[in-house]
Amino acid sequence: MEWFREHAWESWLVLAVLLGVAELFSLEFVLLMLAVGALGGSLTAAFGGPVVLQALLAVVTAVAMLWLVRPSMARRLHAGPSLTLGHEALVGQQGIALAPITAHDGQIRIRGEVWTARPYDETLVIAEGATVDILEIRGATALVHPVPELDA
């Protein structure tokens, strides 16, 4: 026990490093905040503070980090662009009409696949060969709208 009192700052530092390494396996930022608290205890010990003050400062620092810093770090880590999979990934893409598209019949080619298509506006008739925007997918049917063409 006497060894720990003589080498208190080193003990806190070793604890901080161990917690930091353990954080690499959890990625929840809890152990990282505890490691920062241990660094606070290490600094207090390095400046000659008593053991009670070292422990108190380590706990206060860790709790403050968990309460103030961890939520924003976790939010930034888990934030990012959403991943769209399946047919939802086709919305916003363009396709080519393989046949005239009416409210009752039509097909388009999207990324090399043939899909049943209907005009988003049921009163439209889209000509064969027209480029269309996919606005929605309902079941296995793409609801499309023709892309306006500029007259050259």
From TrEMBL:
<dbReference type="InterPro" id="IPR002810">
    <property type="entry name" value="NfeD-like_C"/>
</dbReference>
<keyword id="KW-0812">Transmembrane</keyword>
<feature type="transmembrane region" description="Helical">
    <location>
        <begin position="12"/>
        <end position="39"/>
    </location>
</feature>
<dbReference type="GO" id="GO:0008233">
    <property type="term" value="F:peptidase activity"/>
</dbReference>
<feature type="transmembrane region" description="Helical">
    <location>
        <begin position="51"/>
        <end position="69"/>
    </location>
</feature>
<dbReference type="GO" id="GO:0006508">
    <property type="term" value="P:proteolysis"/>
</dbReference>
<keyword id="KW-0378">Hydrolase</keyword>
<dbReference type="InterPro" id="IPR052165">
    <property type="entry name" value="Membrane_assoc_protease"/>
</dbReference>
<keyword id="KW-0472">Membrane</keyword>
<keyword id="KW-1133">Transmembrane helix</keyword>
<dbReference type="InterPro" id="IPR012340">
    <property type="entry name" value="NA-bd_OB-fold"/>
</dbReference>
<dbReference type="Pfam" id="PF01957">
    <property type="entry name" value="NfeD"/>
</dbReference>
<feature type="domain" description="NfeD-like C-terminal">
    <location>
        <begin position="88"/>
        <end position="146"/>
    </location>
</feature>
<keyword id="KW-0645">Protease</keyword>
<protein>
    <submittedName>
        <fullName>Membrane protein implicated in regulation of membrane protease activity</fullName>
    </submittedName>
</protein>
